[in-house]
Amino acid sequence: MAPSLRSLALIPARGGSKGIPRKNIADLGGKPLIAHIIAAARAARCFANIVVSTEDAEIAAVARAHGAEVPFLRPAALAEDATPSLPVAQHALAEMERLTGTPYDALALLQATSPFTRAEDLAAALAKLAEGQSESVVTVAEEKSKHPFRMKRVVCGDRLINFIDQGFEDTRPRQSLPRVYRRSGGCYASLRRVLTEENALVSADCRAVIVPEWTAIDIDSPLDLDLARLVIARRDT
Hints:
Blueprint: E1 7-12, E2 27-28, E3 31-32, H1 33-44, E4 49-53, H2 57-65, H3 85-100, E5 106-109, H4 119-130, E6 136-142, E7 152-155, E8 159-162, E9 181-191, H5 192-196, E10 206-210, H6 222-235
Parallel strand pairs: 1-4, 1-5, 6-10
Antiparallel strand pairs: 2-3, 5-9, 6-9, 7-8
């Protein structure tokens, strides 16, 4: 059995979302959106700490109420619209190591906008990382409806060309196309050195945990939130 890693679960939750105002605490199935990923992380039972990084006092209070730690508030400079995930993760890692006095072996970034992420998939990702065969593990779902062989680009104003050159129109049935996968958004887990030495969130040496398609709904727009609410309603009937 592979040794366990002392891992930090990090859930970034900025207060200034534009597409859905106050998105991270929007109601989904009677709970704030962020509560779903917190519950999955707690149920996975593979994290030394589950921390929410936010600059927003209300989000911090909601996160604490649902069982996450918020031992610091994120600096405003790391909570802007265009702030990438890497410096947010590096800041949280440094703060938690300062507060606990002990380095972590790994960090897993979990997205509040992926509310159907399952505890067993988080545990599988951390177990795979602990095996020592790779430096990063990411959850992915098979992409069935938008295959890249059927994607196009528009160049020179209106000229239509393939995104991937395989003949202008691939007319093969979907089942005969090569399988492709997209990030589910649920988990990006990496060894500590990837963040601190490679200055990356995910290493080039990365493995996949394949998750069910329905768990990979990412809440980015009001339509996404409506879809998630429909999934919850059907699941609970």
